[in-house]
Specification:
CATH class of the domain at 22-158: Alpha Beta
GO molecular function, one term: DNA binding
Keywords: DNA-binding, Restriction system
Order of helices and strands: EHEEEHEEHEEEHHEEHEH
Protein name: Type I restriction modification DNA specificity domain-containing protein
Strand order of the largest sheet: 2-9-6-7-4-3
Organism: Mycoplasmopsis felis
GO biological process, one term: DNA restriction-modification system
Radius of gyration: 20 Å
């Protein structure tokens, strides 16, 4: 559902869409924001799932002085975050409003009307994008950082807003199904474990 190699169109596509995808510089798509002084908001952290989550929702407790929280950056819904593990998991998408570490770069769309955040959630977490970060990534494994100025010059493939929304919705539905089946799988494992314990008594 995304162009491969030098192609400007995907091999698999929804009906009625035929126009070529266009390239846009990363720095013309998103801009870095620096909004401080929101220490009263929930603190967010980047998760392995590629989303910004409230620390308290995942029982991640770390003591931070209130004065330090004043220097944390505000994150709004549909922002993206360049974090310490972006080099291996992509940009983190936020569906929450909160604040995050000043070590992270918070990025926001210039044009919110023609860029679907859910579509780009999948663009910025796929292997193609992650692999494209290699030239802008510096440092050792435990201390890697991405040069945002260099990343801003890189090209991102995108289609019109209608096709973006279709693709984003499609992958959201797949994720919902995966979560549903994972939940059922976990319940079956619990039932199995309970039955085994009873059999072995």
């Amino acid at each position: 559902m995304f162009p491969e190699g030098n192609s400007k169109t995907p091999r698999i596509r929804f009906k009625w869409f035929s126009k070529e995808w266009k390239e846009e510089k990363f720095g013309e798509l998103l801009f870095r924001i620096n909004e401080k002084g929101y220490e009263f908001l929930d603190t967010l952290t980047a998760s392995k799932s590629g989303e910004m989550l409230k620390r308290k929702s995942i029982n991640y407790h770390i003591q931070v002085a209130k004065e330090s929280l004043k220097n944390y950056n505000r994150v709004l819904k549909n922002d993206f975050v360049l974090h310490l593990s972006t080099y291996e998991s992509g940009l983190a998408y936020s569906k929450e409003i909160g604040i995050t570490s000043p070590a992270y770069d918070v990025l926001r769309f210039f044009d919110k009307n023609n860029n679907d955040p859910i579509f780009f959630k999948y663009v910025f977490s796929n292997k193609k994008f992650i692999n494209s970060l290699v030239p802008f990534t510096y440092g050792l494994r435990q201390g890697k950082s991405i040069n945002l100025e260099e990343l801003n010059k890189s090209l991102i493939e995108k289609t019109n807003i209608s096709e973006q929304q279709k693709i984003g919705d499609f992958f959201c539905k797949i994720d919902t199904l995966i979560n549903l089946y994972n939940s059922k799988l976990n319940k079956l494992k619990q039932i199995k474990e309970a039955l085994l314990q009873k059999l072995l008594i």
